[in-house]
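Bug report (template v2)

What were you trying to do?
Predict the complex of my protein with protoporphyrin IX containing FE.

What happened?
Run completed; filing so the output is reviewed.

Input:
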Amino acid sequence: MNIVRSTPWDELIRNKSLAVVLGLVSHVLLMQGEPDHQGHIIFSVWMVAFGIATVTEYATDSRVNGIFQALAVSGLTATVYFAALLTSILLYRGLFHRLRKFPGPFLARFSKFYSLSLVLPDCQYYFQVEKLHEKYGDIVRTGPRELSIANADAISLIHGPTSRCTKGSWYDNSKAIEGSSLHTTRDKRDHKERRKIWERAFNAKSLREYEPRLNRHGRALIERLREHAAEPALRISNWINFYSFDIMGDVGFSRSFGMMEKGKEDILIEQLHKSMAPVSLLTHVYWPMSLLMRTVGVEDIMVFMRWTSQVLRERKKTQPKENDVFGWLIDPNDEDIPLHLNADTRLLVVAGSDTTAATLTWLFYELCKNLDVQKRLRKVVDDLAGEKAFLEVEDVANCPHLEGVINEALRLHPAVPSGVQRETPPEGLVLPNHVHIPGNTLVWMPMHTLQRNPAYFPDPLKFMPERWTDEASSTHLLDKRAFMPFITGPYNCIGQKLAMMEMKSVTANLVRAFEMRFADGENGESVEQDTKDVFTLNVGKLDVKLTLRSA
Ligand code: HEM
């Protein structure tokens, strides 16, 4: 076959100056808007352009003999293009960026891959951030356009009710697949309207209606623990997990996962946890992940979505005897289940279960480590219980010492340890110490660091429930603002009261029924070392020995 060859096209493809200009123009274009989650589109455009250049070169350049030579020519031009693009990005981020005056690790200013290097291999980024704050101070540049701010004075500006900050692009991670949940929607108006509906499911009246379910599951847990109490090592972290998921299924859509009964993790929850694994990485580098989420990461989410659609469809057809959360969220007039309700179901199960389970596991770890604290708590609970063998949710509603124990677990081991992402408004923010945070900066307030700061909580590593009661608040609780395990402001945790009800009920009944210590061979090391931050905490295993109390 005779191919027509023309010079202007191949000259264009071989033109290195043009490649440099295109590299610089691409950088300017990438800086517009938010390319964070467009990795798959950008990658496709590059591949198509490269393909067209190679075929054109092959078809129009009489100097090339065969496709490999054409590939070499377009490959060289692509290398020049990417070198120009990369040089431009690195120079801009390193020398001219609006965040250049903020201190931080040298490499962090160039790429979020630096943070990824801190995440791997143990997924305990929050400890690394703490070290960065020790070295660089309250404000650290942790990425090209990202700051970590560990200063209680900044909380109301970033998270408060009148804050002009919005949720950052992190929240769009799985939007393409499952839409936005109440938690991940970034549109303030959409959030406000949806939150109004959710609030009905979590107001005082609704919470009272959930109490019988909580009591039933609390009794079931203590019963199962009694059955296993003779074992030399009982994996309490598993049982707490079973309990919190069963409750969320039941309170959420009247369908317990039955994990306490089976004594093992439901296959769906296993799948759900697997689908969250990429999240710890997504927190840092989104654009390659947008490719992964559309390929390998998507199947686990899809499995869970198929399940949620089915559960919600079935839930819609029934009228449970007791009210549940989705009774408020499902619109009986809707023909189908809207996409965002799938996301809301996943939100409810994850946000409501993993967080509570993680906090309780840490709390029991602390009670084993600090036997004197356990003893004192038992005395308080015994006094409260009188003759009762089991304390119902309302029996423990007002017990400052018990609350102090839970607050200490939430303070030392926040379930969302790295904090949450916000983006500053275009005009930026001026902190009370007059530091200006430029506009469109991604900011994180690291809870783990804030809540262990001796300026706010003297003797910060000491597990001290009295910090939260009259006994020691004046000396050991110097700035309560820095305690924000549930975040504050319009996006705060809607389930915090329910979480406190669950945690108080389980903790009080556990110390009432048993004495607990680390099992032989256990020293809490696994909890400390194997806990992984995948947005919420995936806590390592904890084995305890329970001794049934005779009372
Ligand atoms: C110890 C237990 C818990 C902790 C530490 C916790 C923590 C948090 C935090 C820090 C946020 C803010 C997330 C963000 O802005 O990105 C949040 C939001 C949320 N939490 Fe919780 N949570 C807990 C339990 C629960 C429970 C039991 C439920 C449900 C029953 C729940 C439902 C939610 C929901 C729906 C949101 C999104 C609220 C919104 O964006 O308006 N959480 N939680």
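What did the reviewer find?
The CA atoms of residues 19 and 80 lie 6 Å apart. The longest strand covers residues 543-548.
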